[in-house]
Amino acid sequence: MAHIDTVQAIIEAWKRGDVETILGKLHPDVVYHYHVGSRPLEGRDMVRKFLDKFGSGQTDIAWRIHRHAEAGDLLFVEGVDDYVNADGVRIRTPYAGVFEFREGLIWRWRDHVDRAAIADAQQGKPPPDWVLPLL
């Protein structure tokens, strides 16, 4: 299985709210930087707690990957994080992720998102014109 297929399976599981399937794609020693610049989550239990909280109330999830590059056990993806949050506000922001695999499972996961863009979206502000082509 190509590593992009693993990430696509995670996306589909996330859309269904299936945290168990997501965790099954993660190495037991996973280190997940849900936002580069924030303290990472270490281990499946910490990731579970984060996903349960982050996903609570999300609907209309349309997270998608537009491009990817894969070399050995390293996968880079670029796409859009797109969902309606628990307050009913659509959040759309460009997304990039780096995945390192070990034993066929995600061992290191780093998400690169613009937290200011997410905060603006949560306040109902539309994305700036220069961001639209990335969405």
List key phrases describing it.
single chain; 135 residues; alpha+beta; Nuclear Transport Factor 2, Chain: A; 6-stranded mixed beta sheet; 4 helices; 37% strand
What does this structure look like?
The protein is of the alpha+beta class. The chain has one domain (3-134): Nuclear Transport Factor 2, Chain: A (Roll). 30% of the residues lie in helices and 37% in strands. It contains 4 helices and 6 strands; from the N terminus they run H-H-E-E-H-E-E-E-E-H. A hairpin with a 2-residue loop joins strand 5 and strand 6.
- Number of DSSP E strands: 6
Low-confidence stretches: none
Helix-strand topology string: HHEEHEEEEH
Distance between the termini: 28 Å
Briefly note the CATH topology name. Answer: Nuclear Transport Factor 2, Chain: A
Adjacency order of strands in the biggest sheet:
2-1-6-5-4-3
| Class of secondary structure makeup | alpha+beta
Helical proportion? 25-40%
| Integer-rounded radius of gyration | 14 Å
* C-alpha geometry: globular
Q: Biggest sheet, open or closed, and with what strands and sense?
A: 6 strands, mixed
- The number of helical segments is 4
Q: What fraction of the residues are assigned to beta strands by DSSP? A: 35-45%
